[in-house]
Amino acid sequence: MTFVRWFKRHLVVIAGLLTLGYLLLPNVVVTVFSFNDPKGRFNYEWQRFSTDAWTDPCGVADLCGSLSLSLRIAAWATLGATVLGTLIAFALVRYRFRARGAVNSLIFLPMAMPEVVMAASLLTLFLNMGVQLGFWTILIAHIMFCLSFVVTAVKARVMSMDPSLEQAAQDLYAGPLQTFLRVTLPIAAPGIAAGALLAFALSFDDFIITNFNAGATVTFPMFVWGSAQRGTPVQINVIGTAMFIVAVLLVLAGMVVGNRRRRHTA
Amino acid sequence: MTKDRGGDVRLSGISKTYGSFTAVEPLDLTVPQGSFFALLGASGCGKTTTLRMIAGLEEPTSGTVSLGDQDVTRLPPYKRPVNTVFQSYALFPHLDIFENVAFGLRRRGIKSVKKQVEEMLDLVQLGEQARKKPHQLSGGQQQRVAVARALINHPKVLLLDEPLGALDLKLRRQMQLELKRIQTEVGITFIHVTHDQEEAMTMADTVAVMNAGRVEQLGSPADLYENPQTTFVANFLGTSNLIEAEVDTHSGDEIVLTAGGGKLTLPQARCSAPTTTGGKVVVGVRPEKITLTHADDAGDIPEGRNRITGKIADTSFIGVSTQYVIDSPVCPEFEVYAQNIDRDTRLAPGAEVVLHWSPAHTFGLDAAQSLLAGTVGSAGVETAEPEAGVTVR
Amino acid sequence: MTTLTEAPPPLAPGPAATDEKPPRRRGRLTPYWLLLPGILWLLLFFALPLVYQASTSVQTGSLEEGYKVTWHFATYWDALSAYWPQFMRSVLYAGTATALCLLLGYPLAYLIAFRAGRWRNLILILVIAPFFTSFLIRTLAWKTILADGGPVVGALGSLHLLDVTSTLGITAGDRVLATPLAVVCGLTYNFLPFMILPLYTSLERIDGRLHEAAGDLYAKPFTTFRKVTFPLSMPGVVSGTLLTFIPASGDYVNADLLGSTDTRMVGNVIQTQFLRTLDYPTAAALSFILMAAILLIVTLYIRKSGTEDLV
């Protein structure tokens, strides 16, 4: 086989792997530069190897405070959006009612709207109402934009559920509440979990809407944004790298456990 | 043995309409306790709706459902002593086999379920699989779990909604016998909905043939097959050759008819239609009742048999028998099934033949019905659009 | 190849419409109670703010004296005439980034769906995993990658490509950072996963036997792609382009971190007007124009691609 033929046959694979490289390159840079010992305030140029930042990740003022605030907001926003979104998803899949189209549009629009528009209009509301910006306004905004994504995820799962499962539960002496708790909810759980995970990721990483509605409160993305102006501490890279590694390890562990369970019971 | 009749299922005048569409016409039906009862019909004939009304999953538009002396029409499904085996099995995917089977017992507050569940799993030969999840089982095993899950509650009636529809042919045959065995063993009333006439005849003691929201005929499988009362039943159960004939004379218990110039004899007892002289009657005969004789040997045919002449249009050899299609002046595609005992090599396409059968195997039907009712491709049978009244023959 | 030898699913007539009705439900108000809290939330914090913003956009006044609704629609015209370059830039950058995402993302989605074999899950994880590192940190990394005198600039320079791109106006001199190229590069990078995942989802649904059938019917591999695979992946293409274009057109992070004052997009203007200049009517008018423009583009696009049942 000549090289040209080999190249033609594997063109898709080569192009795909190049794209994957493009996607992962920044993470490689972030990781490498977490071991940098920069001159000056900015961490954009390689100087020399150092593990200082790894041994002292909270060594920069306000960094870990902003991180824990982001985690708290993400947790509450996830809880709020998941509960409200799951209720809506069930109503949409399981019942026929008037105003169904309007409800669907109201769910869809936040996803089809640039963040900056939602951010600006929400700020307008808060300013007009004279609301003090801070933790609560951030939480309100996060629940708002996560809601639609949870609805979409849960709806997909509930829609693919065989309706005869619930009828079977009723046929087997489970009343409406029992049917919901013992059959509907457990089967919808993966969809709800997917929605919650998405909500957490969206909330934790949100910058634009938060930036508009945070007032003087500083979340982790806002801290990073500010540091891009004032000077980027190496600790940012440490936290970015750690999150990446933890996420990959968690997913891999989940896959291994899943595989083992499957093999065990098969 | 004295049988408690308190477990009969009685449907009195139940009907179901959706808007302007009538799924089930007012229907009276009694299913005796302990019987294996089949509701047979094509899709959309109302059989599943009828079943769901017994289960409580559908509320009848009119009429009542009683179990023994108890009127259960308004009871929700979880309060009825009735269990269902769903078409899709509807096994709970998040529970293992043991918990699926134990589900009904637990909901009724029974604490120690282990012994009962294990016995039930043994009955359906799945004792080893108790801790597997439904998706790890084969289709046939899932089907048996669905049966076990319903039977463990000792329902007064077990409802089976096309329970074998998703299985392949061989497995279906095996499960038919298996279900029959279980029914005999537990003695519970089974009501079985199916569109497969062979399945209904193999398993049930009583079959109700449904068509367009009505019961066309009810009886034992042999009775339905040998004495169909309508062209729908004649065509839907097996195959029938139907001939339009005119009543010539009555002689004792027999009616003499003319069809295409020839004479046919029909026992009065086997005719479900009024027979006034000169009136029309549809005459039917099952393909396996007919003997084929080459025209050259026509003289050997005994007296007193109904006979028709024709020409072989097509033959197909299917192992145990050969199926012939014969062009005859009275019926363009006469079907004849002959056992392959001694094959007459002259019986090839183009050969002139005489078809003859005993008058006792002839049945008579009302001529005011479509000859095609109940055939594949005709209105209401196995077609997506009930309006597609395509003339096939 | 077991799938090929299996018998096709039996064409058993599905239960007629009458056989499958949703179970009857008691309680007509239940759906409304389920909807109430979430919908109220969206009405209060999504719909109502838009109303407020609409009203703000036609107000006049000043911070000191307060604003009043004067139906001053001229704000829209003023905003548009003052900031139309930023609008055009937003559409252009977002459009280019979307096209690049499709071009780069399709091979990867195809690779994951059809060619990855046992590596499929790992590659999927690698596509999603960067999400867990804050996107701002990752965007800052591009500052290092595209830095003056860095490897990218060096490579482009030695190939004399920088001269070409400078002439085209997408880079400036021997710099890549603080140019349109850097901004588009950042936008493409940031929204690439939003293109890959829907593409993968719709590609993965395609029955592999269709490829064999097309090959059997004398289609060459590329023809198979053009006539079978690509048309069947259209739902993914449409939702992927929307998921990329909409957020990209309103983004101001990439233009701010990787660009210069010459690469400001409409998002930058809205942000500055709202948070620094405090010219609320202009900012409100600008975000309304942006919203209207995007809704228009999206509607036209969905019409054209003929997949209205996307959402």
UniProtKB/TrEMBL annotation, chain A:
GO terms for cellular component: plasma membrane. It is a multi-pass membrane protein. It comes from the Bacteria. Keywords: Cell membrane, Membrane, Transmembrane, Transmembrane helix, Transport. InterPro entries: Bact_Polyamine_Transport, MetI-like, MetI-like_sf. The chain crosses the membrane at residues 12-35, 73-93, 105-127, 133-154, 183-204, 234-257. It is found in: Cell membrane. GO terms for biological process: transmembrane transport. Residues 67-257 form the ABC transmembrane type-1 domain. Belongs to the binding-protein-dependent transport system permease family. CysTW subfamily. This is ABC transporter permease. It comes from Streptomyces sporangiiformans.
From TrEMBL, chain B:
The keyword Nucleotide-binding applies. Its EC number is 7.6.2.11. GO terms for molecular function: ABC-type putrescine transporter activity; ATP binding; ATP hydrolysis activity. One of its GO terms (cellular component) is ATP-binding cassette (ABC) transporter complex. The keyword Phosphoprotein does not apply. It comes from the Bacteria. Pfam families: ABC_tran, TOBE_2. It catalyses: ATP + H2O + polyamine-[polyamine-binding protein]Side 1 = ADP + phosphate + polyamineSide 2 + [polyamine-binding protein]Side 1. Gene3D superfamilies: 2.40.50.100, P-loop containing nucleotide triphosphate hydrolases. PROSITE patterns: ABC_TRANSPORTER_1 (PS00211), ABC_TRANSPORTER_2 (PS50893). NCBIfam families: potA. Belongs to the ABC transporter superfamily. Spermidine/putrescine importer (TC 3.A.1.11.1) family. The complex is composed of two ATP-binding proteins (PotA), two transmembrane proteins (PotB and PotC) and a solute-binding protein (PotD). Part of the ABC transporter complex PotABCD involved in spermidine/putrescine import. Responsible for energy coupling to the transport system. This is Spermidine/putrescine import ATP-binding protein PotA. The lineage of its organism: Bacteria, Bacillati, Actinomycetota, Actinomycetes, Kitasatosporales.
TrEMBL record, chain C:
Residues 87-301 form the ABC transmembrane type-1 domain. Keywords: Cell membrane, Membrane, Transmembrane, Transmembrane helix, Transport. It is a multi-pass membrane protein. Residues 1-24 are annotated as: Disordered. GO terms for cellular component: plasma membrane. InterPro entries: MetI-like, MetI-like_sf. Its main location: membrane. GO terms for biological process: transmembrane transport. Belongs to the binding-protein-dependent transport system permease family. CysTW subfamily. This is ABC transporter permease. It comes from Streptomyces sporangiiformans.
